[in-house]
Amino acid sequence: MPTYTAPTRDTRFIVNEMLDLASYSNLPGFEMATPDITDAVINEGGRFCSEILFPLNQSGDQQGCTRHEDGTVTTPEGFKQAFDQFREAGWGTLAQPEEFGGQGMPHVLGFAFEEFISSANQAFGMYPGLTNGAISALIAKGSQEQKEKYLPKMVSNEWTGTMNLTEPHCGTDLGLIRTKAEPQADGSYAITGTKIFISAGEHDMADNIIHLVLAKTPGAPDSTKGISLFVVPKFLVNDDGSLGERNGVVCGSIEHKMGIHGNATCLLNYDEAKGWLVGEENKGLAAMFIMMNAARLGVGIQGLSQAEVAYQNGVAYALDRRQGRALTGPAEPDAKADPIFVHPDVRRMLMDAKAFTEGMRALTLWGALLVDLTHKAATEEDRAEADAMIGLLTPVIKGYGTDKGYEIATNMQQVYGGHGYIEEWGMSQYVRDARIAQIYEGTNGIQAMDLCGRKLAQSGGAAIQAFFKMAGEDIATAREIEGLADMAEQLEKAVGQQQAATMWFMQNAMQNPNDLGAGAHHYMHIMGIVTLGLMWLRMAKVATNRLGDAGDDKPFYEQKLATARYYMDRYLPDAGALRRKIESGSASMMALGEEAFATAA
Amino acid sequence: MPTYTAPTRDTRFIVNEMLDLASYSNLPGFEMATPDITDAVINEGGRFCSEILFPLNQSGDQQGCTRHEDGTVTTPEGFKQAFDQFREAGWGTLAQPEEFGGQGMPHVLGFAFEEFISSANQAFGMYPGLTNGAISALIAKGSQEQKEKYLPKMVSNEWTGTMNLTEPHCGTDLGLIRTKAEPQADGSYAITGTKIFISAGEHDMADNIIHLVLAKTPGAPDSTKGISLFVVPKFLVNDDGSLGERNGVVCGSIEHKMGIHGNATCLLNYDEAKGWLVGEENKGLAAMFIMMNAARLGVGIQGLSQAEVAYQNGVAYALDRRQGRALTGPAEPDAKADPIFVHPDVRRMLMDAKAFTEGMRALTLWGALLVDLTHKAATEEDRAEADAMIGLLTPVIKGYGTDKGYEIATNMQQVYGGHGYIEEWGMSQYVRDARIAQIYEGTNGIQAMDLCGRKLAQSGGAAIQAFFKMAGEDIATAREIEGLADMAEQLEKAVGQQQAATMWFMQNAMQNPNDLGAGAHHYMHIMGIVTLGLMWLRMAKVATNRLGDAGDDKPFYEQKLATARYYMDRYLPDAGALRRKIESGSASMMALGEEAFATAA
């Protein structure tokens, strides 16, 4: 049977030691996040996910969701009860504003919990996850009345939320949407159209579902500039907060997917459903991007999450399964064979996983801190700086994090040999669940273009220059620390590759934008590799500082240093190859027309 | 609906122009393979697979196989009828010896057909595929009586065959097997034990199933030196060739797998089943390796096959789906959006797929020619040379071919965005089916060790030196051809990286074998990259020669040259990064003990 234990020790290391969350106690919300509180939240959150949600993960995959003829949807056995427990424990309220019933804790804790919930049960975690996205859009763009009407019950998870963007003929290119919003005399709109791929679009886990829907008002421009955002509750909400009549939105079918079977992915038919404009008319895309940016970070975390749970099971199998002998001679001569853990190629896959998950955990939690600082840093300048940095990192966290997450989950399945391919062992689910994260909330190709086409160029390249400056400072201080000079140099070379690639874009992309498009994916990967390298250098610094007085914890810091070294040896070399690919430009990539891709019999 | 057309034009290009099969007409079996015959076989074989087998692929995935209480197994609807057609058309007899009813054609044609069958329906193709493996073991090691009894009906596909190696506690390490073979007074053996993961182990498509089974005789050495091979028919065969009583081998269950649902993966219980020794006692492993080497090449072809069918569907979607605009301005201004084919990141994935599938097709067909030459070349020296080369290439074809095949299938799914994740569209199946090829017939980690631990060192490195010499000659001649000098130089650099990595192994692996194990996977990938580069250089040469007088075929040769250029630009750079990883050795990889991999809460 698969196992999962939330890696809370590592989370506490990052939060308390690497990020030093306590040092931000002067900022609003952070004052509550004392080490004893954060430790308790992390530990209890981890326990809840490991003990309550993980046991429903495999059965949820096997059972999936069922749509009934009346359009209602039943989630897998146990999901509803677990969501009741989740709601009662208040896990959804962690980082939500106090004004709407939240606990107002830093996002750092919210993100830590998101990792655990997605590792334990990604399909389950998407129900509150989508709700969080909808909450952030309503907070940013909703009217006071809308906030008061919807937010308290969404924050408490009595109701859940959804994001409705995609239609059968359009996903990435939202300018093409056809769903219509006709203004009504009472100030509401009648929403009509078909939305697809709506995660958590219909289910039996909450009393109401608050849909946020993109649609076009009559005469709106026929482009992304003509999209408006509407709030469309499944059940209308009376002025006293009680539920009124059923709205005209019905689940027409649920998709049969490769994974995340426990989450209902719905086709929703809107037939003159009653909706209300959120924010300004024709400014829906900006509102949607508020949800989207939060969601993209959440999806990046899913990449980490599936890698983590797959890794834990990979380790368990590698220590249990015995085949062959160590190349250096029998490790356990009295047994008939050694555990496969002794084989370098198995260790390679485990170390790749360990180096990725721990580095990615550091990156997502640092990203969460930046999100907090975007809102809460003391000065406008600090807030703007944090905003630019997390804007730059978001496509990297989403795109690189999920590409690698899928790769690591696949490798951990590989550790199992033939048993990895059998559903009973659970490894296939991690691969299948991880796969979606590369696709939704903007495919990773879109992330790469967001990074290279928008974020690199913003404000004259200020964000990427700030990133290089910060990396340079980290490298310079590490170089002075005994034992870290080699690693600092390795990272410096990789940063140099990224700088060269950046320069190449600057020199070429203006004349030929395809040169940018042709290298965007590779650039996103270089930046992911470099950024995780930076995280490892920071962790190595902390570990070096702590080694002297760590007592019983000494092995923890020693393994951090060893893993940092592995990361520099085995991840960074790809930066040079990726740069060379970028510098080959778009000529050979775009040389062939469509007839060259036809299969000739 | 997914589509598939066997890429016969490309196959004919490789067989007739790159390999110039006609030039081998002096060798036995090749004299029949005149261009008109080979073209007809390729075209008809392609048509059979595209028209008869592909339509059963998705339904076979959805239905899977069903085991009944009596141990019988029903294959998906249509499989039995299609296998009847397959048998009647004689597709299984192509490259089998005439003496047992085969057509005695070169393996080049057999491999070409194997690609088509696996693209069209991998789960189906495994039934005759496993039969071919069993046939080759019986041809090599069976007694005259066994050959006469079993081979004609196996070659004709009236009966199918299986390979029984794995047991619940052992797969890679066959020295651990527990299945017993007790000698009986009549010269037969009573076989008792449990075998798992037996592909095509039980089904309703043929009258009899001939199991080849590894087991231990009483008192045999407790290691791989104590394994013997037995032939165990599902129904005993009377002396007149008619079927006798049901043997004591029963399907206890079938596995619920990630993919290849149309193939029954069985647990087989042997309860004093009647079996007969094949070859010498305690020499079963060598006999098994005859099957295994054939099977590994077949599995490498599966990597190509899934990439190919996924690629064709990726192209279809990229040309059909419209989202956004080309970076260089609207490609089709009158439409509301351009086909996603215009986006460089989509083109990157398509070009990666095209460069891989066409290069890999060339490699597998060249590999097939080497297999033929192993048996049929004119001199002992030529035969030995071919044997050494295909021995070196086998783990590369299997390991690199299936790693990349899975990656390409995943990328083609990515082209579909959200629709790629929905089973109805068919892309998920290609990914799930491709996944097994990295695992079975020796995991890719085992392939890497076979390459680096055995094949590199064999005969003092003769095979790898021959490979480098051959590559050097190809590069030298290409350098003199107008338009190819750049590509020759790019490939030369990559070969240099492989040579440096080879040298590093020689200097380090003797003192520390873990240095070899730590780099084996990366070396297998360098060699795959270089070998496909060599194939592309050869194809580019042929294309350059033909361009002048190609007439209407000119675009075909032009796109070959453009794709060759893309391959050199975008695949070769990884060789340098992989070399650097190898040279980082095993120190950081093996530094941590098992306690460092425990999850601390």
UniProtKB/TrEMBL annotation, chains A, B:
Gene Ontology MF annotations: flavin adenine dinucleotide binding; oxidoreductase activity, acting on the CH-CH group of donors
Cofactor: FAD
Enzyme Commission (EC) number: 1.3.99.41
Reactions catalysed, as given in the entry: 3-(methylsulfanyl)propanoyl-CoA + oxidized [electron-transfer flavoprotein] + H(+) = 3-(methylsulfanyl)acryloyl-CoA + reduced [electron-transfer flavoprotein]
UniProt domain Acyl-CoA oxidase/dehydrogenase middle: residue ranges: 163-271
Function: Involved in the assimilation of dimethylsulphoniopropionate (DMSP), an important compound in the fixation of carbon in marine phytoplankton, by mediating the conversion of 3-(methylthio)propanoyl-CoA (MMPA-CoA) to 3-(methylthio)acryloyl-CoA (MTA-CoA).
Top class in the EC scheme: oxidoreductase
Keywords for this protein: FAD, Flavoprotein, Oxidoreductase
A Pfam cross-reference name: Acyl-CoA_dh_C
Domain Acetyl-CoA dehydrogenase-like C-terminal span(s) in chain numbering: 473-592
Similarity remark: Belongs to the acyl-CoA dehydrogenase family.
UniProt domain Acyl-CoA dehydrogenase/oxidase C-terminal: residue ranges: 282-451
Protein name per its UniProtKB record: 3-methylmercaptopropionyl-CoA dehydrogenase
Residue span, Acyl-CoA dehydrogenase/oxidase N-terminal domain: 80-158
InterPro entries: Acyl-CoA_dh-like_C_dom, Acyl-CoA_Oxase/DH_mid-dom, Acyl-CoA_Oxase/DH_mid-dom_sf, AcylCo_DH-like_C, AcylCo_DH/oxidase_C, AcylCoA_DH/ox_N, AcylCoA_DH/ox_N_sf, AcylCoA_DH/oxidase_NM_dom_sf
